[in-house]
Amino acid sequence: MNRDTRLSDVLHVLLHLDKVEDPVTSEVLARSMGTNPAVFRRTMAGLRKAGHVRSGKGHGGGWQLARPLHEISLLAVYDALGRPNLFAIGNRSDHPDCLVERSVNALMADAMAQAEAVLVKRFGEVTLDTLAPASPEPLSAHGRNTTRA
Q: Which band of pLDDT confidence, cut at 50, 70 and 90, is reported for residue 148?
């Protein structure tokens, strides 16, 4: 099963961006997420639109935080990513007229909605500054080049 790691990946990037002064290129940040620059830019587009990050093109360009971590909630990042699915559990739909299948699906849908509501509420209570370690490793500690390309 493939897992959607965008939320975790983006949080990692945002916490690192908080510790750098100069913009960091898409190439460098994409490597830290294990993806390519085009996918990275698409992933970050919602965060830029929401005003959490800014990006510049050309020499000296790259990504920077647009606001301090204490002003960004985990929920805001989740929303900016388009609220990716939190759970991989799905319902059967082979026999939509089956009363057992309908009963199971209704229970599962309700339970999943309740669980998601709890997570979303918690996401709203957490700001990114509370996730940042006191002494984080720089991006270069991940074996990646952090100079502009």
A: very low
Mapping DSSP to helix (H, G, I), strand (E, B) and coil, where does residue 53 land?
strand
Task: Find out whether 62 and 24 touch, Cβ atoms under 8 Å.
Answer: yes
**CA neighbor of 76 nearest in space, from 129, 29, 27:** 129
- Residue 12 within a domain: yes
Specify the CATH number for the domain of residue 15.
Answer: 1.10.10.10
pLDDT in tens, 36-89: 999 999 999 999 999 999 999 888 889 999 999 999 999 999 999 999 988 888
In a domain, 146, yes or no: no
Q: Print the SS3 string covering 69-103.
A: HHHCEHHHHHHHCCCCCCCCCCCCCCCCCCHHHHH
Angstrom CA distances, 117 to 62, 104, 105, 114, stand at: 35, 20, 18, 5
